[in-house]
Write a structure and sequence with these properties.
This protein is mostly helical. It has helices spanning 2-10, 13-23, 29-52, 54-61, 65-85, 100-109, 112-124, 128-150, 152-191. The chain has one domain.
Length: 192
Amino acid sequence: MTVWIKFFFILTPFFVMSYFLAITKKMSPSEKTRLAIRVAGAVILVCFVIYFFGNFIFSVFGITIDAFRIGSGAILFLSAVDLVRGTRNGQSNDDEGDIAVVPLAIPVTVGPGTTGVLLVMGAETTDIHTRLISYGALLFAVLCVMILLLIATPIEKIVGRRGLSILSKLTGLILSAIAAQMIFTGMQNFLK
């Protein structure tokens, strides 16, 4: 359960939902549904590749997990600050190409902070039982984000733009705590 909660919040679901609503204003409900499903498919693919190949990436580049933990924790913290402040840097507003992949899947849902966390978590899980549980938790977290996108319009009507903004800021606070823990653990292990 705790692994699912971590995955769910590192995907910044409420910010993704706000962004999704902003760029789909002129779309029909059926177009929004198809787009939400395509976003989920792209996020699942990207997340599983990053999560599965974490150990390989570390060994190829000679990076220790603690060094990467500190670096990705810092990036995640910056993303959290952006969410709390109500901004998100590094987004593309390009209308060319599939918006399900860019910008919705990458970098809005799976940005640098999310990538770093997935790499670290993937490298930390070595036994097959824990890895299978993590895969299930990651898949469930992405499916929950997809469900949020599918019901984004009714949620917006209930909580309003201000409510979505508050949820994004709360997500930012939770992300900042996860980032601080990553940095602290990395520093602690590095100094041993």
